[in-house]
Amino acid sequence: MTRLSMDEIVNAVCLNLADRQQVPVESIQVELLYDEDTGFSAEVWVQGRSRYLIEANLKEAIVRYMETEYGQRVFPSQITLDVEDEIWADISH
């Protein structure tokens, strides 16, 4: 099993959005969120514009991150997001 820290999840979201929006990574800010009713999400600012990502968007970013940074092909069903003091992702193999 691989565990991604909160910082790595933020990096994954930043890299994914930078690629999709064709903007510099430095122009993206991410705040990961967890709510008992709505689950995991993130508020992101891309060049000053705010939007929300749902859990499926976070998993998509993690899938791309695992492939580019670790050379591992994973599927969203292998990713479990969890939270205690901070948010992390466990990837089963």
Can you tell me about this structure?
- With 93 residues, this protein is of the alpha+beta class.
- The chain has one domain.
- The strands form two sheets. Strands 1-6-5 form a three-stranded antiparallel beta sheet. Strands 2-3-4 form a three-stranded antiparallel beta sheet.
- β3 and β4 form a beta hairpin.
- The model has no long low-confidence stretch (mean pLDDT 95).
SSE layout:
Elements: E1 2-4, H1 6-21, E2 28-35, E3 39-46, E4 49-54, H2 55-70, E5 79-83, E6 87-91
Antiparallel strand pairs: 1-6, 2-3, 3-4, 5-6
Organism: Cohnella candidum
Protein name: DUF2653 family protein
Pfam family, one: DUF2653
Q: How much is the average pLDDT?
A: 95
Helical region count? 2
Shape: globular
The SSE string, one letter per element, is EHEEEHEE
**Uncertain residue ranges:** none
- Straight-line distance between termini: 6 Å
Protein name: DUF2653 family protein
Pfam families: DUF2653
Features:
three-stranded antiparallel sheet; single chain; alpha+beta; 93 residues; DUF2653 family protein; 2 helices; Uncharacterised_YxcD; globular
Quick overview of this protein structure:
The protein is of the alpha+beta class. The protein has helices spanning 6-21, 55-70, and strands at 2-4, 28-35, 39-46, 49-54, 79-83, 87-91.
